[in-house]
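Troubleshooting entry. The earlier prediction with nickel (II) ion gave an output that would not parse, so I re-checked the input for stray whitespace and re-submitted. Clean input:
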Amino acid sequence: MIRPILLWPDPALSQKCAPVADIDDEVRTLCDDLLETMYDAPGRGLAAPQIGVLARVFVMDTKWKEGARDPRVFINPKITQPSKARQTGPEGCLSIPDVTADIERAEAITLSWTALDGSTHVERLAGFDAICAQHEFDHLEGIVTFDRLPSHQRQSLEASYFA
Ligand code: NI
């Protein structure tokens, strides 16, 4: 089911999300809804709090706009081993429409997570995949792009967002 995407500054977007204890029907439905809502938006990543569910789940499909769909679900994700190398690139967010912010991130990270079938995975991500995973992971911590900006940049982008 396509769910409404909450818009910043909805308070749900500033909350730290709780780990998923059991992968039950509720979690399976949440993942289906996240993917359907992401593709409909259209976007390349979406986190549970963006549809008002404060659980540590996000979905990603970074390349579907250029080819076939590859829907991926990340439950209880963890990020480790951020590279010293940094990259800065423009990021949008479905919860902050029409705003693009240049955010500095690690160029590569190691992402570990549980999949819908309960299996655990570890993968080294770089480039845009690493940016997208760090962006979606931030949502689970209650952090949006604005929170990553120096205050003067944040002020001017917020001003244009609210204008
Ligand atoms: Ni976002």
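This one parsed fine. Residues 91 and 101 are 5 Å apart (CA to CA).
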